[in-house]
Amino acid sequence: GALSEDAVLKLSVSEQINTAYTKEKAAEQRKDQQEAANASDRTYQMLERGEQKPATMNILAAKLFSAPYAREYDLKKLALQDEAHILIAQYIIAHEASGERIRPSELFEFLEEDSEELNAIFEFNYEDELSGTVAERFFLDSAATLESEAIEREIARLNEEYKNAAEDEEKRKSVAQQLACCVQRKNALKNARK
Prior knowledge:
The protein is mainly α. The protein is 71% helix and 0% strand.
């Protein structure tokens, strides 16, 4: 049962091809991980500067164009102020609730064709900006950061309400319970990001 010289040579070439393929795949994975880390850093920097709009628009775009990583995200978590964003979110929520297919072009029935907000959201769908690990990481970071900021605002509001209810013991108990829930949500979110 010894291998012929030809068989040994074929086996050696096959091993070399396998090794090269494995090294190439490892390099691709390292590159994807680095791009995801860079995207995450850019997301945090952008959000720290108070630039919430791109994060919100990315979340809406991912939902609107049915990015697989956005499927389970609940748009009701977003604190939206822009009228166009609210209309887009309502459209998505209604279609998801009824099981209807989301058709981004239908939004032109509600918003002008030259709507800056709608066009900016549509731009997220160009050149695979909503696919891949970087897009998914940006989405997840944006969602977590916006949710955390909403919880922080709720905690600040409740703290103020607690201070103002100095004479009303029942009100203070109720507010304290709400504060405890907010702190739990904030801690759960923080732990999920690790």
